[in-house]
Amino acid sequence: xxxxxxxxxxxxxxxxxxxxxxxxxxxxxxxxxxxxxxxxxxxxxxxxxxxxxxxxxxxxxxxxxxxxxxxxxxxxxxxxxxxxxxxxxxxxxxxxxxxxxxxxxxxxxxxxxxxxxxxxxxxxxxxxxxxxxxxxxxxxxxxxxxxxxxxxxxxxxxxxxxxxxxxxxxxxxxxxxxxxxxxxxxxxxxxxxxxxxxxxxxxxxxxxxxxxxxxxxxxxxxxxxxxxxxxxxxxxxxxxxxxxxxxxxxxxxxxxxxxxxxxxxxxxxxxxxxxxxxxxxxxxxxxxxxxxxxxxxxxxxxxxxxxxxxxxxxxxxxxxxxxxxxxxxxxxxxxxxxxxxxxxxxxxxxxxxxxxxxxxxxxxxxxxxxxxxxxxxxxxxxxxxxxxxxxxxxxxxxxxxxxxxxxxxxxxxxxxxxxxxxxxxxxxxxxxxxxxxxxxxxxxxxxxxxxxxxxxxxxxxxxxxxxxxxxxxxxxxxxxxxxxxxxxxxxxxxxxxxxxxxxxxxxxxxxxxxxxxxxxxxxxxxxxxxxxxxxxxxxxxxxxxxxxxxxxxxxxxxxxxxxxxxxxxxxxxxxxxxxxxxxxxxxxxxxxxxxxxxxxxxxxxxxxxxxxxxxxxxxxxxxxxxxxxxxxxxxxxxxxxxxxxxxxxxxxxxxxxxxxxxxxxxxxxxxxxxxxxxxxxxxxxxxxxxxxxxxxxxxxxxxxxxxxxxxxxxxxxxxxxxxxxxxxxxxxxxxxxxxxxxxxxxxxxxxxxxxxxxxxxxxxxxxxx
Amino acid sequence: xxxxxxxxxxxxxxxxxxxxxxxxxxxxxxxxxxxxxxxxxxxxxxxxxxxxxxxxxxxxxxxxxxxxxxxxxxxxxxxxxxxxxxxxxxxxxxxxxxxxxxxxxxxxxxxxxxxxxxxxxxxxxxxxxxxxxxxxxxxxxxxxxxxxxxxxxxxxxxxxxxxxxxxxxxxxxxxxxxxxxxxxxxxxxxxxxxxxxxxxxxxxxxxxxxxxxxxxxxxxxxxxxxxxxxxxxxxxxxxxxxxxxxxxxxxxxxxxxxxxxxxxxxxxxxxxxxxxxxxxxxxxxxxxxxxxxxxxxxxxxxxxxxxxxxxxxxxxxxxxxxxxxxxxxxxxxxxxxxxxxxxxxxxxxxxxxxxxxxxxxxxxxxxxxxxxxxxxxxxxxxxxxxxxxxxxxxxxxxxxxxxxxxxxxxx
Lengths: 769, 411
Known about the structure:
The complex is a heterodimer. By secondary structure, chain A is of the alpha+beta class.
C-alpha cells in the first residue's frame, strides 16, 4: 500500500528542506500523513479503474455466467407409472418408489469443526455398507462446494428406513437426501413378458413392445414440480405442483390361465429341447386362449419369454435360432434367420449389435408378430365360406384318390401314400383333414368369393388388437386378381398365404360363436390412481362373418375332428381333455422351402363343444423332432393346457371317464398338490408320475397290436427311413417310429414346383415391423 | 511537564494556524458542538448503509439457514448500537493518563497479547478457525484480533510518543516498535490463524513509525524489499503449480493467478465476486436484486459484501461508497492536523491507517487485484467485534478532536 507515495514525497520534502531550512517534527509527520492520504486516494482511484475495467471487459460475459448459474431451487416430483393388472386384479406390472442416496458436501462441511461430517459418515457407513467411507470422506473434504452427488441408486424404502430413523434422532446427520424415483417391477418375473413389454429410461416412461408400448400414453402421467423462488422479501417460497400418476390398465388376461399355459409351453420345451437337433423344443411356441364371446384374450404366451425387469439379459436367447442383419437388394436392412443355434459361446463372441438383433426377436410377441402358413387350421374357414355363400350345401360328397390335378400340378392329400381318403363328406373333409375335398370345395367357391371371405375373416388385415407390434399381412395374401387356380387350391387348406396367430384364432372364434367377429382386445378397463374408472372397453363386434346356421355346422364339424363322430381317422383325437367334449382343427403346414421337411404343427379348438366358452390355439413352429409333421404333439399340448384350464374356469366335465383316465387325472392332481405342498415339482413326488407322452405311447401300442404291452410289437422291427424318421413297413406304409401309429399325414403334400406367393418367407423379418 | 508540552504545542500551532484555523473555526461555529459532526455523520451514514447491505446480502442465507431473514441484520444492529454507546463513552474518557503514566503502555501491550492467548483456553471455533472467545453471561462472542488492533494503536502511539523524534527515527527505535507489533502479529497468526489481522497490525505499526520518524529512506528500502518478496512468492507459485498444493495460503495465491483452473475450490469466491461485479454493470441491478448472493456467493454478508454492493448498486454505487470512505479518512486527517499533541496525532494516524488499509485490501480482494486474504469492509461487512472496536477507534478520534477544539477555544 505504501509504495508510490514515498517516492513522490521524498523529492518534494528534500526540495523544501534545502530551500527553506529545517522543518519541525510536526510538519514532517503531517506531511507524511498527508502523503499517505494521497496514496490512499490514488489506490482508490486505481481500484475504481479496475472495477470499470471488469465491467467493460467482462461485463457481458459475467452476466451470461450469472444467468446460466441461476438455479431456481426446483425439484421434479416424478409421476408413478400406472399398474398393469389381470382380470382378477393380480398385479402384472407395477411401479415401486425407490430412493437415490444423494450427498451434499457443502452442507456436511458447513462448519469447519466438521460437526456434521463424522456423524453423517458414521451413519452412512452403518446403514450402507457398500459405500467406501474413506473414499466418500475424501470426496466430501475435497469438494466442499459440491452440492449433489448420487452415491447409491434405487434403494427400497426398507433399505433407507434405518438411516431415516438415525437422521431423525441425531441432528448432526446432515447433508444426505433421498431423491425419489420409481422402479418398474414385474412381480410375475418372466410371466406374460411379451404381452407386457418392458420400460426403458427411467422405468417410468419409454414403454417398449406389448402393453407398455401400446398404452404408453395411458400409463404415463405428468411429472410434478416443487418450485423454489424468491418472493419480494428475498425469501425462498415453495410451491408444489403435484405429479399426476399414470392410469392403471386392467387386462383381460387371467394370471392363472396364463401361468398354466406358460408352464405347459416350458414343459414342452424342457422335454424336447436338444431332442433331435441342438436348440429349443421348437423354433417358436405360441398359445392364445380367447373368450369366444367377447374377443377378450385370457392368455397369450410364446416361448421363449424374457424377464421385462432385466430385458437385456441374453440367457433366454440360448437355444434360439441366430438372426443376422443383412442388407437386401432394396438397400434395406432386414433380419434373416440362420440355421445356427445360439449357444453361450456364440453369445460371448457376438457384438452388441448382433445381440440386439436377436433380442429384438426375443422381445417380439410371436402370437401377433410372427406370420406363417397356417395349414389345415384354415380348412374350417374355407368350408364356412363355401357354406355361407351357398357354394355348397353341406350335403356334398367328394372322392379323394390321394391327389388332385390342378392346372399342371398334381397336389397331394396327406393320405396320398395310402391311396386317398375315399368317399369324404363335408364333415369328414374337416374331421379327416382331406386336402382333395377342400380343393374341390374351393373350386366351387371360386377365387373371387375365396378372397372376399378371406377379408371377411380379416386375413390380410390387422386385427387391431391393443398390443404393439402386430404384423402386417396385406402382402402375404392373394387378391382376386392375383389368385390363380393353383393358389386357390393351396389356399383352401391353408398353404401359400401367411397369417398371424391372432388373426387365425379371432376368425375361428367368429366361426363358432354364431358368426360374430369380435375385435380381439386385452384391456377391459382403465382406472386412475385412486381407482376411479376412466374408461371401460367393451367387446366390439366388427362384422358378421358367417351366419348362425353355418356356425352351428362348423361347431359340429370341429367337434367331429376331435370326438368320436369323426370316426377313427379324425385328426384331432389326441386334443381332447379327459372328461370334456371339445371341437377343433389340427394344422400341419409346410414351410418354405418345401423340401426341407420343416413343419408348423398346430391345433385350434374351442371348449366346451356344445356351448363354446373359450377358444385355444397352439402353434409349434418346427418342433425339435426327427419328423416334424406329427400333429399329435400340438394336440397333446393343447389337451394338457385344457385339462387344467377348463376345471379352473368352472366348466364341468360332460363325458364319461375311463378307469385309466381317472388314474391319470388323480396322478396329475397329486402332482399339482405336491408341487404346492413340497415346493419344487421336480422333487421325488413328481418323478413317480407317469409322463403324459409316455403313457400315450403305451396306449397306442395296445391299440395297434390288440395285445398286451409286454408283447414286442411287430412294427418295431420295421426299418426306420432316415429321411422321414418313419418306420417303413413291408406294405410300404409308414409307421410312427416311437408309437407304431400309422402315419396319417404326409409331409410332402406340396413340393417346390408348386408356385407360392413371392412375399412369403417367414424367416425374414423386415427391419421396420 | 504539561506546561512544557504546551509551549511546544504552541510553537507548531502557530505555524499551522494560518492554514487551518479558518476551516476549523467555520466547522465548529457552524455546527456549534464540541466534536466534528462531519465525521459523526459519515460514520452514521456508513453504519446505516452497512446495515442495509447486510440485510440485503444476508437475508436469503439467513432465511435458508436460520429461518429468519433478519437474523444477521438483528445481530449487526445490536453490535452497532453497543458500538455507538461505547463510542460516546470513549469520547469522554480522558486520554492524558495513558501518556502520563510511563508504565501503562506496557500494560496495554501485555493486554493486547493476553486477549489473544485467551483464545487458547476459551476460544470457540467457527468457519474453520479459532478466532472468537465467548463472553460469559451475555452469550455473545468477541474476536480478540479486533481488540488487539485497537490496543496496538494506543500502545504504539504511547510508545513512539515516549521515544522522542530522534530515537524513533533510528533503526533501534523503529525495530523496537516493529518488534512489539511483530510479536502480536505472530500471536495472531499462530493462535488465531488470522494472517490478514496479523498483516494489518504490522502495517499499522509500520505506518505509525513512518509517520513519526524524521527519516524515510529505510522505509522506502523496506517497502521495496517487501514488494520484492511478495513478487517473488507470486512468481514462484506462478512458475511452479505443484508448489501450491501443500499450503492453503499458497493455494489462494495460485487460484488468484489462475481462477479459471480452480473454479470449484479456492477461486470460487473470487470468481463469483467478479461475476457479481460484471452482472451489476454501471448502475447495478437494483437494491436487493443481487442474484449472486443467493447461495452462489459464499457468505455474501462478510468479506464479499462489496461484490453485492457492486451487483446491486453498480460501479456508481461502489465508487460513491469509496468516496464516503475517503471523506471519513479525510476528516480524520483534519483532526490529526489539529491534534494538540504528538500522542493524539499518532493515535489518529493509527486509526486512519487501520481504516485505509482495511478498505483498500477488501476492495482489492473483491476486484481480484490481490489474493484472497479475508479482510472485512469497515462498518459495512457483517461482524460485531469489528464494528464495536472500529466505533471505539472513532470514539478515540472524536475524543482527540474534542480535546483540540476545547484547547483552541480556550485560546
